[in-house]
Amino acid sequence: NSPFDVIISFEDKEITNIDDLIQAICASQIGQEVEITYWRDDTKRTTYATLTESPPPS
């Protein structure tokens, strides 16, 4: 068992590296609900998340 999830798609866009994920997030809108597909423990799973603005650094 791996302690990590591996994101394989974000809003039906294939994710092969961190740059793909950053581009997909940046192309999305704050408040948008997005679909994220990932591998965990040899099982393909899908979840949904609503994007929010990052809080300013303290």
Automatic annotation (TrEMBL):
Instruction: List all membrane-crossing ranges.
Output: none
Looking up SUPFAM superfamilies in the UniProt record yields: PDZ domain-like (SSF50156)
The family database entries (Pfam families) matched by this protein are listed as: PDZ_2
Q: Which residues form the PDZ domain?
A: 5-47
Protein name, as recorded? PDZ domain-containing protein
Q: Which organism is it from?
A: marine sediment metagenome
